[in-house]
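Hello,

Following up on my earlier ticket. Below are the two sequence lines again, exactly as submitted.
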Amino acid sequence: MVALARKTLIHEWRRYLPASLAVAFSGMLLLVQLALVFGIFNGAAVYINASRGQIWAGYPGTQSIDSGRSIPRDAEMHLLMDPQVAQVEPFQWVNGDWRGKRALGSVSVFISGVDTAPDALAFARVIPPALRALLNEPDAIIVDRADLPKLGIRVGESGILNGFRVRLVGTTNGLRALGGVNIVASLATARRLNVGGDPRPAYYVARLRDPQQAAAVAARLDPHERGRRYSVWTASALAARTVHYWLFETGAGLGVVFMSLVVFLVGTVITSQTLMGAVAGSISEYATLNALGASHRALSRVVMEQAGWVGLAGLVGGGVLSALVLVLAQGQDVPVAITATGILACAALVMGITLLSGLLAVRTLRNADPARLLR
Amino acid sequence: MSATMSPAPAISARDLAKSFTVGKVSTRVLEGLSVELAGGELTLLSGPSGCGKSTLLAILSGLERPDRGSVAALGEPVWELNRKELQRFRLHHIGFVFQGFNLFPALNSVEQVELPLSYLDLGAAETRRRAEAALEEVGLGHRRKLRPAELSGGEKQRVAIARALAKRPQLLFADEPTSALDSVSGQTVIDILHRAARQHGTMVLCASHDPRLIAHADRVLRMEDGRVLADEHTLHPAAAGEPAA
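Thanks for your patience. The regenerated structure is below:
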């Protein structure tokens, strides 16, 4: 079999290059957009993702971790009674109002009160034990490095938080929040800053002996009775609830879908136009083949194969472009996150662009009427 | 193989009529034309442009449906076949040579010839063998690795003829095959077509207004205004069909 599709692609690569570039850039736009949105909205679940526990207990029906309310202290005992649970610690949630030294006005902040033990679970992934120990100092706080300009403060300096003077003892990376600044303090400091609020914690975090059992443990620990005063989730379930809440309740999710449609449309228009131009440029040759007995289906296969190769080249190009952009973004502290499912979804959309463009180009083959060669 | 006389004509067309409508103007191109064409003969269809020779070629070769009339090619009622059957019929029995050579720029000569053969499911070895034999036949065996851009006009047309001949068609249609060529190349091309008719018993129908070709044709059909005005057997007056128009 003569590899007409491939040989033509290689021989006339300049003709097909715009199509591959359109596919590559569409793929990059789709992926980077998704990575940015996931990155930003993962910030909403940073409390969960940056912590080590597998189980969270919180107020029933909590849709997003930042809307947590105090729960009874007996939740801690209830969790500890399960043989799988190895460790439980409270997680205090306080809304705050920050005034820095400079004239930056007030900044809305979220205060997380955490255990300061070296093996504590909350924010264990972003606050190493040495840094955490600094929180034992009264009124000590830790923030994300990227939030310093917003707060107008440097390490060692003080600011006013909920009317109390607090001191920044250190910074870390990976604490950025959505719609505010995250401030980490010890449980004692957080309680002091929680003026007039409920002194009970909003969450309890638990570590299991076998992390694989998280789903089963959460299911048996979740009080099912009516009128329950707290619920139990796996960490991933609470994180997913939170990201989902922010994605869809804020309209950002629809925005992603809408932007993806726009990218899909633009990619398809450019790719299909290029492929149609290529088919139109060879229409006499296709018509001759048809005259000699090659079916329209056989000719369509050639065009679809070309579309497939163009898409594959675009997919590889788009992958490389996306990787470069994501690495660049990460280097600049731009929140980006991408999952395998996200990459697969983007790849599927890109191949969808290619497939649709190929089908549109196949329609151009209708003009491959050999009778026209005789007029 | 020597020139053979088929008892039945390779093509027999009866009462063909065709008109084209452009806007509100309808033009009659063919008017009740009947013709029979024999295998082993090179028939030249000559006449001024617009006289209907290309249309007749298209109708006889199964590319353009007539408004009226019938065509029997190798005993098959061509215009009673459906699109798929017609395509199969063309694949197995018909070769075409067009004025524009219509070669794929990306393929070398042997691949150009192999391409239509590949739809016959002959197997790679037989396909290659036939393609190389066809290129040898048109005298281009030594040019088989060259792409169209590296060939002269005459050589391109010879590749196109090899592409048509490699299928070993019983019917070969050529539309103005020499009009884009210089006289030497044109001479070579018409010789090849003539040889194909003689050696393989192929019916070759060649539409052309190139007067140089007349001397090489076995039979000349002179057309004007959609009718055959004259039917002359030249070198070998052994045609099977009688003029009907």
